[in-house]
């Protein structure tokens, strides 16, 4: 189990570093993300987290 957790954390770190290297970043402002996606003719990946229920 520890082995799988370690591998998962390493992969997450590598993918994050790779995204930063290629100019990718998370945008927390939905309206700004929509504007950028439209300007670049790209789709959005939206991750809703948290709740109040």
Architecture overview:
This protein is mostly helical and 53 residues long. It has one domain (2-39). The protein contains two helices and no strands. The chain is flat, with a radius of gyration of 15 Å.
Helix-strand blueprint:
Layout: H1 2-21, H2 30-39
Roughly how many Å is the radius of gyration? 15 Å
Structural class: mainly alpha
User: What is the H/E order?
Assistant: HH
Cα distance spanning the termini: 32 Å
Give a count of the beta strands, DSSP E runs of length 2 or more.
0
Number of helices: 2
Strand content: under 5%
Gist of the model:
Helix content is 57%, strand content 0%. It contains two helices and no strands.
Relevant terms:
single chain; 2 helices; flat
């Amino acid at each position: 189990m520890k082995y799988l957790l370690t591998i998962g954390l390493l992969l997450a770190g590598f993918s994050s570093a790779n995204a930063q290297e290629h100019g990718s970043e998370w945008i927390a402002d939905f309206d700004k993300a929509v504007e950028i996606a439209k300007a670049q003719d790209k789709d959005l990946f939206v991750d809703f987290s948290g709740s109040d229920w």
